């Protein structure tokens, strides 16, 4: 909350700003340092661009030595523009086009193929380009689902990867394509306990051992662990740390952390989510029998998952007065209603907060990942100003959109009214 107060005092949370998002850049750097310390130095920690595609955030992580995990053609370009060396970019997508694969091969990105047909496509493209591809194969370990089904990808069926039940086809692919040198596993994001993450990695590591026994000890070069470590969204949440994960992996997968395979991780949420808050001015307060509602300027535009699935995606809230001081008083239950024109637009229901008045500032915590990157254009609301605070000073990471910016978005490139 101190960052909100400082931003107000320095005139960075301006009168025209109905809302702002504030990133603690020092905390982000500390989170990355903790991740790097937990794994061997040969590990490439590829930040999931989808979690937070803000170029200054990506630039900061590139400067810290991170890699980037891109899941689309624009995410590749975002990573390149942020300064990531192509050799440190991992390209994941279940729907890679020939154009996208051709670019990835020319640049020398590491490609995680999602299916066996994609391997055949890569082989033909690489032959035509005269390059040796750097490729891993995504495996669905079929280890089970986490608490949130929509973000769990390791059930008996998944849209992602080659199922472990096709083990013979997987081994045949490694025999057919000598350039295929890696395995990739990911079981889900948020709601997946440590035991499930380790079980998924362990199943695919066992497969790696089988391939090496069958085709030679040097057959594999890369093991991509994916992401999945959760963030704490409730006061009582105690998510496992990167060190906890590494310790559990060492027990389940002896030889993985201290062996010759190059390791890759693809974390996003655990790195960035705790590093930002969203602060919105309260525009109106409504009282009806049994309900108290504060109308704020951020709703399902920023909090898409939270509004459509509030039980799975809670957020802690705080209340400040217009000057940025914490409001005191006996807490009551308040609905925080967003500005969009549909009845489910409540980023938080039944928040326990002191009495709210127009002009107060509601602060919603842990919004650093999978919020702004999922911004909805419904009602054509303006994206808020995004601020960063690091090494003792503020910077503007992204300026607040003006109405003409939204008009240009809908016109598209080359459009005119």
Automatic annotation (TrEMBL):
One of its GO terms (molecular function) is diaminopimelate decarboxylase activity. The active site is at 341 (proton donor). One of its GO terms (biological process) is lysine biosynthetic process via diaminopimelate. Keywords: Pyridoxal phosphate. InterPro entries: Ala_racemase/Decarboxylase_C (IPR009006), DAP_deCOOHase_LysA (IPR002986), De-COase2_CS (IPR022657), De-COase2_N (IPR022644), De-COase2_pyr-phos_BS (IPR022653), Orn/DAP/Arg_de-COase (IPR000183), PLP-binding_barrel (IPR029066). The modification N6-(pyridoxal phosphate)lysine is found at residue 50. Its cofactor is pyridoxal 5'-phosphate. Residues 26-273 form the Orn/DAP/Arg decarboxylase 2 N-terminal domain. The keyword Ion transport does not apply. SUPFAM superfamilies: Alanine racemase C-terminal domain-like, PLP-binding barrel. PANTHER family: DIAMINOPIMELATE DECARBOXYLASE, GROUP IV DECARBOXYLASE. This is Diaminopimelate decarboxylase.
């Amino acid at each position: 909350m101190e960052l909100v107060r400082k931003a107000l005092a320095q005139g960075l949370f301006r009168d025209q700003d109905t809302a702002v998002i504030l990133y603690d850049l020092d905390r982000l750097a500390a989170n990355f340092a903790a991740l790097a310390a937990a794994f061997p130095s040969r590990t490439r920690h590829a930040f999931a661009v989808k979690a937070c595609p803000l170029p200054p955030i990506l630039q900061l992580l590139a400067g810290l030595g991170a890699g980037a995990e891109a899941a689309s053609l624009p995410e590749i370009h975002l990573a390149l523009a942020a300064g990531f060396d192509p050799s440190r970019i991992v390209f994941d997508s279940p729907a890679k086009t020939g154009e996208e694969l051709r670019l990835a091969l020319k640049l020398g990105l590491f490609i995680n193929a999602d299916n066996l047909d994609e391997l055949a496509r890569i082989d033909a493209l690489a032959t035509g380009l005269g390059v040796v591809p750097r490729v891993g194969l995504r495996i669905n370990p079929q280890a089970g689902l986490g608490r949130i089904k929509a973000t769990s990808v390791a059930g008996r069926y998944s849209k992602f990867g080659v199922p472990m039940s096709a083990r013979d086809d997987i081994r045949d692919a490694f025999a057919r394509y000598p350039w295929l040198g890696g395995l990739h596993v990911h079981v889900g994001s948020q709601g997946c306990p440590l035991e499930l993450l380790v079980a998924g990695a362990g199943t695919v590591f066992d497969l790696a051992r089988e391939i090496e026994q069958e085709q030679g000890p040097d057959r594999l070069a890369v093991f991509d662990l994916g992401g999945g470590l959760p963030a704490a969204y409730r006061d009582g949440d105690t998510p496992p740390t990167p060190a906890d994960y590494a310790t559990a992996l060492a027990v389940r997968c002896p030889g993985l952390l201290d062996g010759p395979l190059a390791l890759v991780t693809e974390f996003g949420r655990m790195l960035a989510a705790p590093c930002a808050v969203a602060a919105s001015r309260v525009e109106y307060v409504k009282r009806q029998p049994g309900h108290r509602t504060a109308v704020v300027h951020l709703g399902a535009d920023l909090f898409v998952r939270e509004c459509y699935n509030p039980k799975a995606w809670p957020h802690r809230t705080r209340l400040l007065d217009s000057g940025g001081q914490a409001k005191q008083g006996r807490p009551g239950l308040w609905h925080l209603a967003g500005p969009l024109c549909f009845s489910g637009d409540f980023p938080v229901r039944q928040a326990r907060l002191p009495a709210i008045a127009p002009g107060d500032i509601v602060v919603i915590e842990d919004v650093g990942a999978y919020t702004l990157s999922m911004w909805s254009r419904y009602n054509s609301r303006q994206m808020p100003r995004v601020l960063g605070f690091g090494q003792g000073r503020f910077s503007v990471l992204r300026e607040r959109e003006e109405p003409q910016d939204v008009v240009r978005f809908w016109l598209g490139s080359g459009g005119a009214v």
